[in-house]
Amino acid sequence: MAVAAKRAAAPRQNPATIIAVGSGKGGVGKTWFSVSLACAFGRSSKRALLVDCDLGLANVDVQLGVRPEADLSSVMRGWLELDQAVTPVLGGPGRAAGFDLLPGHSGSGALGALKLEEVHRIATGVTELAPRYDRILLDLAAGIDPNVMRFARAANRVVVVTTEEPPALTDAYAFLKVLRLAQPAAQPWIVVNMADTRGSGRRIYEQLAKASESYLGYRPPLAGVICRDPRVSDSIRAQTPISVRHPQSQAFEDVLRIAEVLSA
């Protein structure tokens, strides 16, 4: 593919920072956050790649309203190389809020039940794309199964998204615990999403941080709080990134601040 060849000819001097975005449970806005974070990096002139790692239940392309010509299923079947399955979004890297997407494949039982060695091959392939970007985002599947953790271990930095709901907090703690057991040197960050106020979001973070400090011996730092904003659901329904539909929204401003924290 001509597009892939063009990207391959211009590697970056420093490999991309790989950021995995995970959550203990679904419904916390993890995928919306991953998409918005990719837009935020694009807006700050960072060349970003977003990888939908929710194999079998992928939905990043749905949220974005794009119809990719290829996805990870094409790669796993041997039809394409990993970089040939990349789809530009909002004009791709180099455009305002643009980035590249490596889509998953929704409704594929075969991809959802990949063996760990196959997941390892995808994760390794993604890391080989790092010289072409400034940031690579991995939108993980919800949960803590071995495939999710394998993708998380491929990242330089892990962000765990939670909300104030007790099940979300419990499952976020489980994610932290499993990740730290598998990779003791991991230092995941916390994002509290859909907080009623910034103060309440910080209190939720403190609950999770204190539990982690008490039982895991590690206090995860806070990447940021995203306040509840009705324009988020509006942008999701419209299948349009919030950076385009509501660029001045409070929620996107919160994501921009988090992007700055994660770039420090």
CATH superfamily: P-loop containing nucleotide triphosphate hydrolases
Overall strand count: 8
**Strands in their spatial order, largest beta sheet:** 3-4-2-5-1-6-7-8
Biggest sheet architecture:
8 strands, mixed
Overall number of structural domains? 1
Question: End-to-end distance, in Å?
Answer: 35 Å
Taking Cα atoms only, what radius of gyration do you get, to the nearest Å?
A: 17 Å
- Give the mean pLDDT: 90
Low-confidence stretches: 1-9
Relative strand content: 15-25%
Output the number of helix runs. Answer: 12
CATH domain fold name: Rossmann fold
Which architecture per CATH?
3-Layer(aba) Sandwich
Shape: globular
- Structural category is alpha/beta
Can you identify the CATH class? Alpha Beta
Order of helices and strands: HEHEHHEEHHEHEHEHEHHH
Query: Helix proportion of residues, in percent?
Result: 40-55%
Chain-wise SSE layout:
Elements (H helix, E strand, L loop, with lengths): L1 H7 L8 E6 L7 H14 L4 E5 L7 H5 L7 H5 L10 E3 L9 E4 L6 H4 L3 H13 L6 E5 L6 H8 L3 E6 L3 H17 L6 E7 L2 H19 L5 E6 L2 H8 L4 H4 L4 H14 L1
Parallel strand pairs: 1-5, 1-6, 2-4, 2-5, 6-7, 7-8
Antiparallel strand pairs: 3-4
Task: Write structural notes for this entry.
With 264 residues, this protein is of the alpha/beta class. It has a single domain (2-263), classed as P-loop containing nucleotide triphosphate hydrolases (Rossmann fold), CATH 3.40.50. The protein has helices spanning 2-8, 30-43, 60-64, 72-76, 109-112, 116-128, 146-153, 166-182, 198-216, 230-237, 242-245, 250-263; strands at 17-22, 48-52, 87-89, 99-102, 135-139, 157-162, 189-195, 222-227. An eight-stranded mixed beta sheet has the order 3-4-2-5-1-6-7-8, with helices on both faces. Helix 6 runs parallel beside helix 7 and helix 8 (166-182) packs across helix 9 (198-216). It is globular. The N and C termini lie far apart (35 Å). Mean pLDDT is 90; it is low at 1-9.
